[in-house]
């Protein structure tokens, strides 16, 4: 989020300030703290608290980091013809490390009676696809559209033992997904995550994590990192589970 690699916890007021800042990057980087407070109809103290949530000691540091971020974002060029990212990832899928992680995921999931996919934004679209794909090849799977307001937040012990969560997140720091996993962990559900890095919060909260390590891309403040690795990984897991179940049935 902006120049951070993670998503800080933002209140409704913080989100209003954040939306103003992202819509006026160049303008805000030249403002005084009083100017931003007036533009967003809050106090300067509120602006300072907002800056600290972005790991800045004050508004001056926030403004400098914002200016650097704006310059970097405007300089970003998206090369749609560059296939290096995809080729490098697909090469790594043939290596022992990736295959081992897929096997671990399949072992974790093969006895599950219900799989819940959770993700936000473009990762939410991958999660929705994953639920459809799993339901076709493996078992009943559902997509959680709103992680913070979902009926499966309240689970019986009998259900939690048959349930597995698959969390999809590029950054591995999506706050809504983190909160959902932390709640679900209290019910001792199994957690699998698909993230860009195994050092992320979501990865560390999971029983099994499959990282894909591709270059993250942003354009004008938006994360446009490819979701191809996540889609490919979802399909690999489902196919491996189907293979295991068919092999055990023989």
Automatic annotation (TrEMBL):
PROSITE patterns: HTH_RPIR, SIS. Residues 105-244 form the SIS domain. CDD domains: SIS_RpiR (cd05013). The lineage of its organism: Bacteria, Bacillati, Bacillota, Bacilli, Bacillales. Keywords: DNA-binding, Transcription, Transcription regulation. This is SIS domain-containing protein. GO terms for molecular function: carbohydrate derivative binding; DNA binding; DNA-binding transcription factor activity. Residues 1-73 form the HTH rpiR-type domain. GO terms for biological process: carbohydrate derivative metabolic process. InterPro entries: Homeodomain-like_sf, HTH_RpiR, RpiR-like, RpiR-like_SIS, SIS_dom, SIS_dom_sf, WH-like_DNA-bd_sf.
